[in-house]
Specification:
Distance between the termini: 15 Å
Number of strands: 2
Number of domains: 1
Structural class: mainly alpha
Number of helices: 7
Shape: globular
Strand order of the largest sheet: 1-2
Radius of gyration: 15 Å
CATH class: Mainly Alpha
CATH architecture: Orthogonal Bundle
Strand content: under 5%
Order of helices and strands: HEEHHHHHH
Length: 181
């Protein structure tokens, strides 16, 4: 129990730290950040439940006003901004990513974690992000989806990184990859 709480807090802090990497905000108000890599790693390393809890902790800290999002943003206002859908989708993305890694047991871990990151950390996250973006910008879903295509190359790189990092961690400290425990 104590180990789980520590890891949940540690991974919430990892997501926050990845927001410190200089961001680039696109014209429609959504920044390109490394925080989605943290969400992917929550799922691939911690598994579905613990990964989602780590991300929920991060979202809760943002909601109470801590400036943990890229660019030092935080507070309830971010839940009505163009980034709201992505933020709300973070826990779901981590959960689905972790669920895939927990259940897909055959194949190299780097490939499994990378593919899980594409499904959870990109497809699931984009479903929420596009919906939120369309709502915030008062645009049709198709137009919001077109705007989000700018993120695809970077997010594919993050998915590959999540796979490689998870596999390296499993080789170095097998007991630390709880999605495979």
């Amino acid at each position: 129990m104590e180990r789980n709480l520590t890891l949940i807090a540690l991974f919430a802090a990892l997501i926050a730290a990845l927001g410190l990497i200089p961001q680039l905000t696109l014209a429609f108000g959504v920044p390109i950040t490394a925080q989605s890599l943290g969400v992917m790693l929550c799922g691939t390393v911690l598994g579905a439940k613990r990964g989602a809890l780590a991300v929920l902790l991060f979202v809760l800290l943002v909601a109470i006003g801590l400036p943990l999002l890229a660019g030092g943003r935080g507070g309830l206002g971010v839940f009505v901004s163009p980034t709201a859908g992505f933020l709300i989708g973070f826990p779901f993305a981590a959960f689905i990513t972790g669920l895939i890694v927990e259940n897909w047991r055959n194949g190299p871990l780097a490939l499994v974690a990378g593919a899980a990151s594409v499904v959870g950390g990109i497809l699931v996250l984009y479903a929420f992000g596009i919906s939120g973006l369309a709502w915030a910008l008062q645009k049709p879903l198709a137009e919001a989806a077109l705007l989000v295509t700018a993120f695809i190359p970077g997010d594919l790189i993050k998915a590959v990184l999540a796979g490689v990092i998870t596999a390296a961690l499993a080789r170095a400290r097998p007991d630390s990859v709880l999605s495979r425990a």
